[in-house]
Amino acid sequence: MSFSHKAFSFDWAAFERELAPKLKQALQLEDARPLEDFIEAHIDSVRDPYEGEPVTEDWRSMLEAGDVQELADFALTRYYQPSADFGIGEEWEALSREMPEAERAALLGSAFESFDPGRMGSYFQSERVAADSLRALRNSSGTAAERLKQGLSEAVDSGRGIYVTF
To answer: What domain of life is recorded for the organism (predicted)?
Structure first.
């Protein structure tokens, strides 16, 4: 199975302030209600995580599993645009094998609790960590690395972190 690296500019500060405590609680208790309430309260800024389209009042009909992971996947879109992927796709494995450790770490970030809606890995970088990642990747070259550096640069310039998922 090949993994496809996806990366998005992410409003880490707002996430940390608004959703992170609710998400942590929902994951620990396996209770989706706080996430349902969050989505309802922010329906105008939540999107379909797969297509990037705004959700409508009948957003629950879009759910497949309806579990905490899936609801968190929807809630998280308040902080990023799902259609604005600047990840390195399937090239990430080959690229990461060629990189020194500091550069490899810059490709991902840190997990948030047990959040992993795609069951293949989800990672976050705060604004500061994204800036550090951009510096760590400065000597990386190639189309995929350049695409990632461009996206990181835009995120950092706008005071945002990044969200990485597979």
So the answer is: Bacteria
